[in-house]
Amino acid sequence: MSGKPYRPNVGIALFNADGLVLIARRIKDDGPEIIAPGCEWQMPQGGIDAHEDPRAAAARELFEETGVTEADYLGETGWLTYEFPPYRGAAHKLAQFRGQRQKWFAMRFEGNESEIDPVTPRNDQEPEFDQWRWEKLETVAALVVPYKREIYRRVTAAFAGFAVQR
User: Which of 42, 45, 63, 68 is least surrounded, with the fewest CB atoms within 10 Å of its CB?
Assistant: First the structure.
């Protein structure tokens, strides 16, 4: 795995007015991005297209995965990496990567909750989630797959100042 590159990726911590973040439940155990029982929840994240600005990728991924278009930029992390767990399944589009190199963005949700819809396909992308909810930022790391927990702890530390009620 060490000879493989990291996949460029963005993650989004979408805060509501109460300082909670949006998390969604993954529905597919599809390749290196596995789902472990009891660890199906995560914040939106996705790949950066060739020549795409990371902040633009974050807005696109947020829309594709949740339908959200009304979100204000709050801040971002530097680049963070994580390794995929060993994967011996069928060939998968992510198999060419050792893991992901992510830049996380904090955004404030400014829309109506009725627009949050993780199950409708957008931009020819299949849904990755079947449910969503608001959660305390400091509890999210315990809800994700173990190999992403350190990244989530770092995101929690970086964005803790946004996890307050407005």
Answer: 63
Residue segments in the chain with a per-residue pLDDT below the cut of 70: 1, 29-32, 89-92
What local confidence, expressed as pLDDT, does residue 86 receive? Answer: 79
Do the domain assignments include residue 1?
no
Q: Would residue 74 count as lying in a domain?
A: yes
Partners of 41 in the beta sheet?
Answer: 25
Which DSSP helix (H) or strand (E) runs through 15?
A: strand 6-15
The pTM assigned to this predicted structure is 0.93
The total number of structural domains that make up the chain: 1
Give the domain extent around 102: 6-162
Is residue 89 helix, strand or coil?
A: coil
Q: What is the CATH number of the domain that holds 115?
A: 3.90.79.10
The pLDDT of residue 1:
53
What is the torsion angle, in degrees rounded to the nearest 10, for the CA atoms of residue 17, residue 20, residue 21 and residue 24?
-110
Alpha-carbon dihedral sign for residues 136, 142, 143, 147? positive
